[in-house]
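Structure ticket #2291
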Amino acid sequence: MRTGSGQAGDPPAAGQQAEPAISSPSASTPWVAWHGDLAAWLDRLGWLRTLSDWLTGVLGPVRERHQDNLVLELLHGGRWVGHPLHPALSDLPIGLWTGAMVLDATDRGQPPRRGLDAAGVLSAAGILAAGATALTGLSDWTVSDDQDRRVGLLHGLLNTVALGLQGASLGTRMAGRRSTARALGAASLTVTAAAGYLGGHLVFTRGVMVNRVAWGTGPRRWTRALQEADLPDDSPTAVEAEGRQVMLYRHRGSLYAIDNICSHAGGLLSRGPVADLTVTCPLHGSRFALADGCVSRGPASQPQPVLPTRIRNGWIEVRGSQPAPRRSANGRTQP
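Resolution: structure written out below.
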């Protein structure tokens, strides 16, 4: 920032003293930062790290061996759905089990009897939906990393406990012990809420499974990225153009430029192999066509932005998808 520009982060002007920072009364209260402290505490749990590493060692090779399997890709949702399936499916057991709890709260006058009542039907349907949700969640978990993987594992363990409690609730309900069934159902929904909170942390705080390049639009004008002589043929090369990371690739005289940050989890595409004008992300194996950025294999669900290129005066220049507005002779801005 330039001195005196009036923007945040400016240093004090010469001869002026910096004003003391005014702290918010709630800045130091634990009620403001408890969620961050909770996530950090969970990440330090030794048993969780050990279990996460063990499951990664078991499931990682299985996923790599079958990552071209269509069923495995469909579990992510991927290119066909446009986003992961797991968040949408997770609404089903939550809604069904909540409905069962509401029915339990409104039919207390009914005498206990064996078999399934309306609340039991919702409970059973929620159990079936939870099974499908767990499969998609496990599939997504195998393509997460580090702290996200450990928090995601606890999220899954809590949901497993909730599923067990709901199964026990259904069993006691069918045996005619409705009071016990209601208590177990309420406990199941409470654990589900805790698991849901961790799921929200992963998505909204950590950005898991969100499009990492959704806001990449620049540079707004043609910008020099690399001298033409410095780009070897058939070799992915990472450059930076006005803060945007771009992968350049040249094949038989044709030049390609694609956003270097993988839309799935932020892997650097320039570090992955290129075959048949398709680049494979080295992080989780997503594949993108260099010509138009479309997804040819998941787990990515969103295409990679491609950038226009040209060669001027021995330089490779790139431009973003939204060029800067032009100004006409009268000084007015034109699109």
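Closing remark: The chain has a mean pLDDT of 85.
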